[in-house]
Write a structure and sequence with these properties.
- The protein is mainly α.
- It is built from 17 helices and no strands.
- Helix 1 (3-34) runs antiparallel to helix 4, helix 2 crosses helix 9 and helix 9 packs parallel to helix 15 (331-360).
- The relative contact order is 0.14.
């Protein structure tokens, strides 16, 4: 593997670590800053802010990299991440913590630039393999992040941010000396409309036949946010977990989820069909959420991990199912719409679930998992009712807008 790819993959792994390391320690950090115990709402706000900045700036960084070249945008984002994590390590107030989390979301939007870089330097025959490694590196980072954050956070709640700053600074120096430019800067004028993250949604909303699948992606993505937002709070409140145990449990969750997504979807689709695999995934999620809601001992949580991971077979099957709803020349546009829907879910989900957890925390913390079950259940009739028609039929019905 060439050195530029190693730098890009390292940057993606660090992005994922940055997302995951904050989950075990964010409640403690907010408590330290605001000197209060009820921090669920603030956890939701900071998580949603991160997603909102990522959603808003991914098209901006992508368009700027087309105009200025990939290398300067990646270098600036890595430098920004290093400075930002140091800022969060030293932040004495909630305001600076919010500013730091916003900058973290902005710099993590460099995923779009990293994807473009890989496309630039990869022949068509190698792209699928390299994007597979790309996704694997993100998964590895997301598993390591919570474990690292939990272990270091038990020594000092701000230590994980110092570690993340040092890692990003090391990657910046590596990129500065090793990473060549993959694309010559463009002399064409920058199209400002390309910076609008809501632009793809206008096309989708004009096609009535696509709304159920878009809504399904939104609902299932929103329920996925409940783990990152509420897991640490729930683990502390119910089992008195410290940062290390929160990190280990999230890491175990990530491993089970990754193995399930890598090994099960193809077999599930061959046996159950795409729709059946999606519904089985939702059923697995609902079963696991019920178990988490009533878990009285910590060992029960780890015993439920394989069932939680069973939900992972639904997402790949849903993605495959979605590709059958539009013709080939609109696949890219449609996938962009689905990515936008999932990004919006990453904003709405944390706000909703953190507010609900704040309401039920003193009475029954496990009720948060039943609220996620209800959202999952809403998706069932949407999936069951999906209709497949040829693109020509859709155009004839007036769904193309």
């Amino acid at each position: 593997m060439n050195r530029p790819l190693l730098v890009i993959f390292a940057a993606i792994a660090l992005d994922a670590i940055g997302i995951g390391l904050i989950f075990p320690i964010l409640p403690h950090l907010i408590e330290e800053v605001i000197h209060a115990q009820s921090v669920a709402t603030y956890v939701g706000i900071l998580t949603a802010l991160y997603a909102a900045m990522q959603f808003s700036f991914a098209p901006v960084l992508g368009a700027l990299s087309d105009r200025l070249g990939r290398r300067p945008v990646l270098l600036i984002s890595l430098a920004g991440a290093a400075v930002n994590y140091l800022l969060m390590a030293l932040a004495p107030s909630l305001t600076l913590l919010i500013v730091g989390r916003a900058i973290a979301g902005l710099t993590s939007a460099n995923v779009s630039v990293a994807t473009a870089y890989i496309t630039d330097i990869s022949p068509e025959g190698t792209r699928a393999k390299r994007f597979g490694i790309f996704n694997a590196m993100f998964g590895i980072g997301f598993i390591l992040g919570p474990v690292l954050g939990g272990a270091l956070g038990d020594y000092w709640v701000r230590l994980p941010f110092i570690a993340a700053s040092a890692l990003n600074a090391a990657n910046l120096m590596l990129a500065l000396f090793v990473l060549p430019e993959s694309r010559a800067p463009s002399r064409t004028r920058l199209d400002l409309s390309a910076l609008n993250p809501l632009r793809p949604l206008r096309w989708a909303l004009s096609m009535r036949s696509l709304l159920p699948i878009i809504a399904t992606f939104f609902l299932l993505s929103a329920t996925g946010e409940v783990y990152g937002v509420c897991w640490a709070l729930w683990g502390q409140d119910v089992f008195r977990w410290n940062g290390l145990w929160i990190g280990l449990s999230l890491g175990a969750f990530g491993i089970c989820q990754s193995l399930a997504q890598a090994l099960l979807p193809g077999r599930a689709v061959s046996v159950l069909g795409e729709r059946g695999a999606v519904l089985t995934g939702i059923a697995g999620a609902c079963l696991a959420l019920t178990g988490l809601a009533f878990a009285a001992q910590a060992w029960m949580v780890f015993a439920l991990m394989p069932v939680v991971a069973l939900a992972g077979i639904g997402t790949p099957a849903l993605q495959s199912l979605a590709t059958r709803l539009v013709d080939d020349d609109r696949q890219g546009q449609f996938q962009g719409v689905l990515a936008s829907a999932m990004s919006l879910a990453s904003i709405v989900g944390p706000l909703g679930f953190s507010s609900f957890y704040f309401a039920v925390r003193d009475h029954w913390p496990g009720a948060i998992w039943l609220s996620a079950l209800v959202v999952n259940a809403i998706a069932v009739p949407l999936v069951a009712g999906l209709r497949f028609s040829s693109p020509a039929t859709a155009r004839a019905s007036g769904d193309t807008g």
